């Protein structure tokens, strides 16, 4: 059984980009698709690893800093005799290696993921040493997508293709049974790494977006489209048929507005505009009042979201 010490969450930036995309606020959506695809690959990896027999401590999605060099680890797994570093890529299509360069079949060069992983391993090793751990590190680069092919690749590279994952898990389980049990020091290491994890602001790379330029209405929680209509205490999507209780859809929409525009003072009037007048101000006020905190009085009063509320549809 594996113990997951740090769960993987959808990246905050991806969540924000999805909100912008639904409302026509993304001129270039390549970053969105990259993040979305990468995240889906990592989720598939987690699912695969959760079936792994043996004793493991899993720490997902770490952003660490050692001596000023910041590095990211998709999945770090602590076993009895070593630390595994797993880098997960969800690439699709044909690629080839040419003298250490990674190229797509259309000859477009991509960042060398092996080099990226090796740098990560070096930084992690130094960090572990500084924490007093000498455990060996084994790094593997996973290509999780069955539609991915890499030509011109030597078999001795630390790469695991989709077609090799079954065999890889057998090897891992064997290693686990021969390397002995996990001890308190293993959990201490996992705890320490979780403590050192850096939380990055999801707004850092977010493209500039203006309230007036975004499409107004309620985004469908099912398909992410804007074809939602109000229909007796619920909203219904013309495109996918998804039905959602009105209050839930409103809470979600208010949360969206607060998240995309953290500086904005949320009022009934703004939300009424944000959802394209789909329901009356009275209904909006009721939902705001029972789910958000009111700051101030009279005309200058506004609402703020409470930290505990999470209305994302992910
Ligand atoms: Zn829909």
Number of E-state strands: 15
Based on Cα principal axes, name the global outline: elongated
Could you say which structural class the secondary elements and strand pairing correspond to? alpha/beta
Radius of gyration: 23 Å
- Please tell me the overall pLDDT: 93
Layout of secondary structure:
Elements: E1 2-6, H1 12-22, H2 30-50, E2 56-66, E3 69-78, E4 83-89, E5 93-98, E6 101-104, E7 109-110, H3 113-130, E8 137-143, E9 148-151, E10 159-161, H4 165-178, H5 184-196, E11 228-230, E12 234-237, E13 243-245, H6 246-260, H7 268-274, H8 281-291, E14 292-295, E15 302-305
Parallel strand pairs: 1-2, 4-8, 5-9, 8-10
Antiparallel strand pairs: 2-3, 3-4, 5-6, 6-7, 11-12, 12-13, 14-15
Helix pairs in contact: 1-2, 6-8, 7-8
Bound molecules: zinc ion.
Kindly summarize this structure in a few lines.
The protein is α/β, with parallel strands linked by helices and 314 residues long. The protein contains 8 helices and 15 strands.
Structure in words:
The chain has helices at residues 12-22, 30-50, 113-130, 165-178, 184-196, 246-260, 268-274, 281-291; strands at 2-6, 56-66, 69-78, 83-89, 93-98, 101-104, 109-110, 137-143, 148-151, 159-161, 228-230, 234-237, 243-245, 292-295, 302-305. It is an alpha/beta fold and 314 residues long. It has two domains: 2-196, no CATH class; 211-305, no CATH class. The strands form four sheets. A six-stranded mixed β-sheet has the order 1-2-3-4-8-10, with helices on both faces. A four-stranded mixed β-sheet has the order 7-6-5-9, with no helix packed on it. A three-stranded antiparallel β-sheet has the order 11-12-13. Strand 12 and strand 13 (243-245) form a beta hairpin. Mean pLDDT is 93; it is low at 308-314. The structure holds zinc ion. Zinc ion binds next to loops. Zinc ion is lined by residues 220, 222-223, 225, 237, 239-240, 242.
